[in-house]
Amino acid sequence: MDKILRIDMGAEGGPRVSEEALGAYAGFGGRALTSAVVSKEVPPLCHPLGAENKLVIAPGLLSGTIASMSGRLSVGCKSPLTGGIKEANSGGQGAQVLARLGYAAIILEGKPQNDDLYKIFINADGVKISVDNSLRMLPNYDLVEKMKQQHGEKITCLSIGPAGEMKMGAATIAVTDMELRPTRHAGRGGVGAVMGAKGVKVIVLDDTGVKMRPPKDPEKFKEANKQWVEGLKKHPVTGQGLPAYGTNVLTNVLNEAGGYPTYNFKQGRFDGAAKISGETQAETETARGGSATHGCHRGCVIQCSGTYNDKDGHFLSKQPEYETVWSHGGQCGNSDLDAIAQMDFIEDNYGLDTIEMGVTLGVAMEGGLLKWGDAQAAISMLHEVGKGTPLGRILGNGAAMTGRAFGVERVPVVKGQALPAYDPRAVQGIGVTYATSTMGADHTAGYAVATNILGVGGKVDPLKPEGQVELSRNLQIATAAVDSTGMCLFIAFAIMDQPETFQALLDLLNAFYGLNLNADGVVELGKTVLKMERDFNAKAGFTSEHDRLPRFFKTEKVPPHDVVFEVKDEDLDKVFNW
Amino acid sequence: MDKILRIDMGAEGGPRVSEEALGAYAGFGGRALTSAVVSKEVPPLCHPLGAENKLVIAPGLLSGTIASMSGRLSVGCKSPLTGGIKEANSGGQGAQVLARLGYAAIILEGKPQNDDLYKIFINADGVKISVDNSLRMLPNYDLVEKMKQQHGEKITCLSIGPAGEMKMGAATIAVTDMELRPTRHAGRGGVGAVMGAKGVKVIVLDDTGVKMRPPKDPEKFKEANKQWVEGLKKHPVTGQGLPAYGTNVLTNVLNEAGGYPTYNFKQGRFDGAAKISGETQAETETARGGSATHGCHRGCVIQCSGTYNDKDGHFLSKQPEYETVWSHGGQCGNSDLDAIAQMDFIEDNYGLDTIEMGVTLGVAMEGGLLKWGDAQAAISMLHEVGKGTPLGRILGNGAAMTGRAFGVERVPVVKGQALPAYDPRAVQGIGVTYATSTMGADHTAGYAVATNILGVGGKVDPLKPEGQVELSRNLQIATAAVDSTGMCLFIAFAIMDQPETFQALLDLLNAFYGLNLNADGVVELGKTVLKMERDFNAKAGFTSEHDRLPRFFKTEKVPPHDVVFEVKDEDLDKVFNW
């Protein structure tokens, strides 16, 4: 994993492949690498769909090793949704396989000179790029089937659906899981649109005959991994809650806390929550012959995923995540879990961000386009997106665009990106992250919910402004570092509570690379990443005025706690003063 | 004209009217007043369609007097299109009548608590506000007919069409002309959407029994006006070119100069230009029993407007302006003048900005939605806008939204607002104005075309970067001042070339108000206005990075001169260093 694969899609005579050493990017992986490349090589004022933007796909520092949970893939570019820097992060097999193939990053550059659609095939023998216009507008599931027919079952696919080809702001890059299903997505910020603008439909990875990456100190590495796995297994969130109920364990928790955004952020509790909770979901999955405990990539011990079958026991979708259940559930006033799973599948298939789309449907409901809770109408609308009708073009470009199109005032976005599943008035720490993250509203950028609601890493009252800035700051720094390791963010629960598990992570990095990294080094890495991202955004035109929630969170009280977002603007501006 | 009329549309129990003295706003009129109110009273981060935004409608300092050309009306708010401050400026009878009724401004505040649509009637007896939902979705022409039936022929209407009701980013506020036709528009930046968000369909003004505003020194004022009219009549642009051919006299001039944007800014000359030139237009109008020389308000001596009839001699539209002819002509590769007049009428009727819409149609053509030059398809699309279909919602929100929806990269906008009819590569001075204006791309904010192309106010080579920043700066300052007087901007040609005509303007102001204003005072006023606007925009999140043209103007050469925009970013940042 010591080389970068560059593909200039706009080269004279067709795509030109080159390989180079990491060079100035040595020591960076995952988000650190994607953000370094974007901030160094992409003009901040370029058009996100233009030749000057670059799409950077990078496994983490520990991806492709035996280290458990190291399968996260970072995808970076200038975002078509936010206009700022973007790192979208996906599970699935992509990171492990790409790392084992020896690539620290794939960088797609330029823009094809015509409308051809390309397939990129990478294996131990090298890189093959071919035009394949027969793939045009294939949904992800069909596309992957076709790739299996062409390349066998030992592949991993990174692909875009119709949404990416249509360059929609909610378009994702799908990554196949262990079952070779396109269920994992670099979801946020329209990274799929950038891949579409590069004319690349699919990157097929085949790691046949390629070995696991060797650590500098194999013994120490093995021992560290043992401690690591033990730590993850003993923490109640990563060892019990997530395996048993998946991320959707949060529905009842957030609903109880009054922080479950309902009817487009009008209230913090949803009547129908019990019907779509993780508990109900796990029970339904098990009863129908699906699975409630499953990993999304080899080497996962948390196993927060699952399989959701329909009433007849046929595969409907992978287990929808909490955010997806919420965005198509409470946000839309819908408590039909089967319909939610159906929408999860449709969005995976078209290649759409489930958070952005669910929030968008809620905004469309507020705008009177369909009735609250009308899941069948919502499903019809998603098909409009897949077909690229004018209505679909609006919805597929996300909540902000939908609000604009239909004159809706209450649009829950920051920097143009939809808010996830935690009301920032009832969980004020996550509000600070939404407002100030370099990524637009993003719960994964600094998951203050852990401390505000779950009591992980201490306790900060979720309803009060005090302590939230410091909490979000520390989490944003730590997250930027974790996102660079290739580690799944859910490890955060264990490393925040258990010093020995955090030490095991350091030991993994040190044993693998022969380093002497300590906690301070991790913090420095996180700060370095955030600084690069903030610099890019400033040059792209972002100011402190963009580090704000929509004003209605300051003026409209959310029941049941009847609170507004109370963190002051001047305090938001201190998040990055370290 | 010493009082402000405030109407709180969101008051408990229905709209609440109050009147107040000018107070801290004394000495301001027109754009100075709208920008003062917006910058002082509107939270820069508010939602443009929300209760916190305000719509300010203000005649100029000399409106309502006998001073010739003083009929311009300023409409200000936070713009739904740009997200920044907005002053859109209209001819027609509105300014004169409102000023004579004694109002320095109408300020619409708040937001109605339900969906009712309101009519506001103002005459010498006061203000009457009534709900009239029968007006819903009426196009402007039909609406005005209805108002004539209700209130007689001695009225002036300020109204929104369906576009404003649907809160579209291209929605205008129409102002009736001397024939009581809704042909004049506060066009740019979506001011009509803000009126729509306030629930106001129409403001009917009746100045029956109201007198001309009396100057402090009537004799001096009369004498100054004589000099003023003489100066306007003797300048070749205001005395000959504009009266004979209207603003469309520019088609041949810009086409010859290679600065006529064609096929969505792909080339600087259009094959079909002669067919849609001002000369052809005037000839056509005269031959069909229309008129090529006509004023848009009482007291106009330039008479740049006219009447465009169809082949059978029936009214088709008022004489389309140069910008309209261009945006539906060269921008779209269309040389059918009758179709252009038809689109002008349709847009006036639905209440749409003709610049934004024409540019949008060109972007849609680039995106493959319709063929270059297909005027009939363009007309169909405009009806989609009027009907508010999803496609219409996209188009009616302008070029930036349309580019986003259909993944088009070449979108000629600054701050979200479409570029007018001068290619910034071939007319680099106007490029500086487009980039840096507080308004988004706006030719009227500092009309460097005058000096670059027409040789008015000196000569600066249009193809070179040298001297453009200073030119644009001086023009932006002067324009901000002129926009505050109520004077039509076309007076600029005469005052730039003829010192005695500029003096006549100062004399008019001094004689009317009993002032001792000199040239320095005018410059100070202009700077004050720009500073307020820049401050608002900074607080709304605008930085120097927003004072830029889209990057393709720097990278794509435009024929026939094969030039790019060469003014450096650091020089753009000096425009407001005075």
Amino- and carboxy-terminal Cα gap of chain A: 33 Å
- Largest sheet properties of chain A: 6 strands, mixed
- How much of the residues of chain A is beta strand, in percent? 5-15%
Walk across the major sheet of chain A and give the strand order.
2-1-6-3-4-5
How would you describe this protein?
Two copies of one chain form a homodimer. Chain A has 23 helices and 17 strands. The first copy, chain A, is of the alpha+beta class. Chain A has two domains: 3-206, 4-Layer Sandwich (Aldehyde Ferredoxin Oxidoreductase,  A, domain 1); 225-572, Aldehyde Ferredoxin Oxidoreductase Protein, subunit A, domain 2 (Orthogonal Bundle), CATH 1.10.569.10. In chain A, the strands form four sheets. Chain A has a six-stranded mixed β-sheet with strand order 2-1-6-3-4-5. A six-stranded mixed β-sheet of chain A has the order 8-7-12-9-10-11, with helices on both faces. In chain A, helix 16 (428-436) packs across helix 18. The first copy, chain A, is globular. The model of chain A has no long low-confidence stretch (mean pLDDT 97).
